[in-house]
Amino acid sequence: MKLKRAIGVIIILIKLLYAQDSAIDSLKNILNHTTNDTAKITTLLNLVEVVYDDDEWHTYNIQALQICNKIAGNTHLQGFINRSLSSIYNNEGYYAKHKNNYPKAMDYFLLSVKYAKLSKDFSSLIGTYINIASLLSTQKKYTESLDYYKQAITLGKKYNIGENELLYAYMSINALYSKVWKNYDSSEIYLKKTIQENKKINDKNIMGQAYNATAISLIEKYSQNNQQVPLIILDSAIHLHTIAQSYFNFLGNLQEVTNSYYNIVSLWQKKYIQTKNVHYLNIALNYTDSTLLYAKKSSGLSDLADVYHLRSILLESLAGTKANYSDKLSLLTRSFNNYKVYKMYSDSTLNKNLYENLTQKLLKYEYETKEIQLKADQEKKDTINKEERKRKNIILYTISIILILLIGFFILLYKNLQITKSQKQTIEQQKQVVEEKNKDILDSITYSKRIQNSILPKVDDITKLLPKNFILYLPKDIVAGDFYWYHQTENSIYIAAADCTGHGVPGALLSVFCSNVLTKTIKDLKITETGQILDTAHHLLVEQLSQSSDHLKDGMDISLCKIPIKYGAHTEIEWSGANNALWILSKNTITEIKPNKQPIGYTDNFVPFTTHKIQVNSTDRLYLFTDGFHDQFGGKKNKKLRAKLFQEYLSETTSLSITQQKEFLQQKLLEWKGNNEQTDDILVIGIEV
Questions:
Q1: Beta bridge partners of 498
Q2: Is 6 exposed, middle or buried (0-12, 13-18, 19+ CB in 10 A)?
Q3: Strand order in the sheet with 682-688
Q4: H or E segment at 435?
Q5: For residue 14, what pLDDT band results from cuts at 50, 70 and 90?
Q6: CA-CA distance, 219 to 158, in Å (whole number)?
Q7: For residues 231 and 239, is the Cβ–Cβ distance under 8 A?
Q8: 3-class SS at 590?
Q9: Is the separation of the CB atoms in 340 and 311 below 8 Å?
């Protein structure tokens, strides 16, 4: 029956797991080939459950009703008919409610109750009682609605059935007490019952909703009459929202994770308003980072607008606590920028007063420098856009040429296979054409290598700021999936060794895109922390690849290091890794910094990347690498070289200069490989600080 449509998000999520196209096709096939009336009714009611289009499932429901009326005189089937009619009229009630015909909906629901009682189908009766309660609540007949919810609970308890429906009833009664009657003590009782009953089925979605509702009810209870909420109550509410967030995170319910984080930020803001303790304000701002991350993942524009709006308000509040002109100006500028983003995402009318208030404050501090800053920003933007268009055109032209040539090659190859022996002369002619095309393809791939080389940083540029370094870069094919990447900001040097899915042309195409994503993340989005850089690159890559109907699962492994431009005897570096580690050679001892075991790209249960902050000393050596070196087959037993032997090579050469060490590694690799082909692209970066 259509009960599931009335129980909301909880049951809809369960329904989605089963309402597959294959199931619908199978049921339609059964319906078309059966002549038995009871089988037809059962199949039609199953179709009602799995079909989403309201008019389509309603058609199946009416067909089931017509067959029930046709066999109504068969006393042997009376129990089956009564159960079926209970489901059918419940579905009709839902349909009428959906069409806003409330009187007709109530008539159908009461018919459903009648037949459920005749057939003693108490499970269906519970569902119909809940549908009636929901209908009454929609009509603002809250007292009658409460009575039907309680009748449903009484039946479920009596017959020990309908656990999911009872949880929905408990949550709905809580909403009546808290939202309608403001009776928070009664609301709390039903929330506790929800949590207690849920222990039987351990529905994490219900637990998350219950904890969120408990926190909200707790705050509303103490906020009556505009009184201050005790700090201990605010802390309890924050704790409850945090628990709820963990449940929703486990389920991958990004929308509810976003809502939980938003509530946490609002509560820290409330603590600041009541105490004027700036520490609480900073905590609230820190939480907005996580809130924005999940809001972007869930693609909820209204959620993004709300978060940017709240962060704008928090930054303005923080600016009000600063005495220093520069700090105040910086925070007000950030507040203004967040408000502009909020305005972009929001569909609501612009809050004119707040916008003008922020503008006046900014004009006060920025009047003398505004024109210069605007001009500089525009020039920078124009330069970036020009380079971006140029880079995109090069990539597009290259991909187009390669694809066209590859398609032509395979068409010719297929035709060659169909030629018979009697067409020897034609075969020779076609062979010549294929060879010419192969030459064109090779030329195109060679040109692609030039394009890929254009995105690789110049070694001389790296050496200017990192004079003691080496880059051992050996592509398996003409072009490679491995690439090294370098970017310089005012205060820092970023360098990375990356490995994109595959090698050759596919890996090279992905490497061009990934290189651009890394540069965009730092240069355009102004993200500087290595973990956050990888987080952002992950989301940009997934977003781009998800646009393909082929659901590409490509990705990138990477070892990313951030080094201060001014480094000395004792220097703190930042590092983050996706499947690729960092080795630090210090006084003949190698320390491994382990990466997050996930790629940049599609992955199950994604977690934000860890930023490692590491103290290194003068003469310490850092090694960033992909898996190509230690995965090379060779040696006496023709096995992989392995990481352990790789580390021994590095430890043996501490007395050599960094340049000599590269030559030593290259020689050892050749000796190990012997006559074997190169297994994969090889990339090793060594840096002495």
A1: 483, 558
A2: buried
A3: 469-474, 682-688, 621-625, 582-586, 589-593
A4: helix 424-455
A5: very low
A6: 35
A7: no
A8: strand
A9: no
Chain segment 250-265, per-residue pLDDT in tens = 988 988 999 999 999 9
Dihedral of CA 276/278/280/281: which sign? positive
Question: Locate tokens 């070694």: which residue?
Answer: 459
Which tokens belong to 512? 């061009």
Q: Output the average pLDDT for the chain.
A: 85
* Sign of the C-alpha dihedral computed for residues 527, 531, 535 and 540 taken in this order: positive
Q: How far apart are CA 111 and CA 624, in angstroms?
A: 72
| CA atoms of 402 and 516, how far apart (whole Å) | 20
- The set of long-range contacts for 73-81, using a CB threshold of 8 Å and a minimum separation of 24, is 77/38, 79/119, 80/38, 80/41
Decide: 319 and 331 in contact? Cβ < 8 Å. yes
Short-list 586, 592, 593, 591, CA closest to 654: 586
In whole angstroms, what is the distance from residue 635 CA to residue 642 CA? 11
pLDDT at 359 over 80: no
More confident residue, 623 or 371: 623
**Token pair recorded at residue 98:** 């959906």
Question: Left (φ > 0), alpha (ψ -120 to 50) or beta: where does 182 sit?
Answer: left
| Per-residue confidence (pLDDT) for residue 372, from 0 to 100 | 44
pLDDT in tens, 616-634: 998 899 999 999 999 999 9
> Residues for the chain: how many in total?
689
- Residue ranges of the alpha helices (H) in 223-300? 231-251, 254-275, 278-298
The one-letter code for the residue type at 449 is K
Residues 6+ apart with CB under 8 A from 343: 350, 355
The residue behind tokens 């089931």 is 64
Please write down the long-range contacts of 116-121, taking CB distance under 8 Å and 24 or more positions apart: 116/82, 116/83, 116/86, 118/82, 119/79, 119/82, 119/83, 119/86, 121/82, 121/83, 121/86
Specify which residues 474 forms β-bridges with: 682
Tokens of 275: 């105490």
Mean pLDDT of 485-504: 89
Report yes or no on whether pTM surpasses 0.70.
no
Element spanning 41, H or E: helix 37-50
Cα radius of gyration (the chain) = 33
Can you say how many angstroms the Cα of residue 585 is from the centroid of all Cα atoms in its chain?
36
Tokens (6 digits) for 1: 């029956």
Strands 612-617, 621-625: pairing is unpaired
Q: What phi, psi does 647 have (nearest 5°)?
A: -65, -35
DSSP three-state, residue 579: strand
Name the residue with tokens 């909403």: 175
| Inter-residue contact 601 to 544 (CB < 8 Å) | no
Give dist(CA 83, CA 565) in Å, integer.
77
Report the amino acid identity of residue 243: I
Conformational region of residue 678, where left means phi above 0, alpha means psi within -120 to 50, and beta covers everything else: beta
Type of residue at 350: L
List Cβ neighbours of 460 (8 Å cut-off, separation of 6 or more).
none
Q: Measure the CA dihedral 117/122/124/130, to 10°.
A: 100
CB contact set of 623 (below 8 Å; sequence gap of 6+) = 582, 583, 584, 585, 650, 684, 685, 686, 687
- Residue 6 pLDDT: 31
Least confident range from 63-72, 127-136, 449-458: namely 449-458
- Give φ, ψ of 485 to 5 degrees: -140, 145
* Spatial CA neighbour of 620 closest among 576, 572, 550: 572
Answer whether residue 490 shows pLDDT above 80.
yes
